[in-house]
Design a protein that fits this description.
It is a single chain. By secondary structure, the protein is of the alpha/beta class. 46% of the residues lie in helices and 20% in strands. The strands form two sheets. It has a five-stranded parallel β-sheet with strand order 2-7-1-8-9, with helices on both faces. A four-stranded mixed β-sheet has the order 4-3-6-5. Strand 5 and strand 6 form a beta hairpin. The protein is globular and about 65 Å long. The mean pLDDT is 95.
């Protein structure tokens, strides 16, 4: 099925800067909308139901899986996370661009279901920098940081399956790269034909 809106999927090892980049993109581009995932993990600090996540019981999650309610779901760090089908299909169906910030297993499932989805992988500039960002963020205990670094090697080996790779060294440069990927999708023939129908018609392009 060809939807008028684009589906962007961003994945990265923890600490590469995925959340910071997506947040900055959303502030710059009001045509891009975030997706709110469902998760079975409990809320942290200031998190609110329906804003960061829909916090869901194991039973509710099972029911959504059984009812084909997710376009993808996966176990991440021992919990389940999933992207609801209904809200994504509605929004890209109406022509909005939706961005998913999910793990690489989920990204692969989205590509299977939506072959036009645009997969973007964020890499850190080096191991040293990845470690120091995780330490600076100050959200994780030392043993959790070691586990995330170990997982990062496995996750980064998947980067070749993505359409685009952005190296988040200078933040502004990486943000510019992400804007460029989003913008390029909007210049595709089918997108321009839809968005600029008047121009095509006045030029007698049928
Ligand atoms: P390159 O720097 O040799 O790769 O040249 P490109 O032709 O790819 O990019 C043109 C220049 O525009 C680059 O230096 C970009 O960094 C810069 N540029 C345009 N918009 C932005 C922006 O929003 N942020 C940053 N950091 N650079 C931008
Ligand atoms: P992720 O969502 O991939 O786990 P975050 O967006 O939380 O990563 O970023 C991890 C930490 O690194 C945060 O403290 C963030 O402010 C910082 N950070 C992100 N991008 C850069 C960058 N280009 N240079 C320096 N620090 C960065
Ligand atoms: P956190 O619990 O720290 O917010 O997220 C942990 C991890 O789960 C991150 O790697 C994040 O990208 C991933 N994640 C968040 N939502 C989803 C989702 O809907 N599906 C999948 N597959 N992964 C998700």
């Amino acid at each position: 099925m060809d939807y008028p809106g684009n589906l962007f999927v961003v994945a990265a090892p923890s600490g590469a800067g995925k959340s910071s980049l997506v947040k900055a993109l959303l502030e710059l581009d009001s045509h891009v909308q975030p997706s709110v995932s469902h998760t079975t993990r409990p809320p942290r600090g200031q998190e609110r139901h329906g804003r960061e996540y829909f916090f869901t019981s194991e039973q509710e999650f099972d029911a959504m899986v059984a009812g084909n309610g997710f376009i993808e779901w996966a176990h991440v760090h021992g919990r389940r996370y999933g992207t609801s089908r209904k809200s994504i299909e509605e929004r890209i169906g109406q022509g909005a661009d939706v961005i998913l910030e999910i793990d690489f297993q989920g990204a692969m499932q989205v590509k299977e279901a939506f072959s036009n989805a645009v997969l973007i992988f964020i890499l850190p500039p080096s191991w040293e920098e990845l470690r120091s960002r995780l330490e600076r963020r100050g959200e994780d205990a030392p043993d959790v940081i070691e586990l995330r670094l170990k997982n990062a090697a496995i996750e980064m080996a998947q980067a070749e399956k993505f359409d685009f790779v952005i190296i988040n060294e200078l933040f502004e440069r990486a943000l510019f790269d992400m804007k460029t990927v989003v913008h390029a999708q909007r210049l595709k023939y089918a997108a321009q034909r839809r968005a600029r129908a008047d121009t095509f018609e006045s030029l007698n392009i049928v």
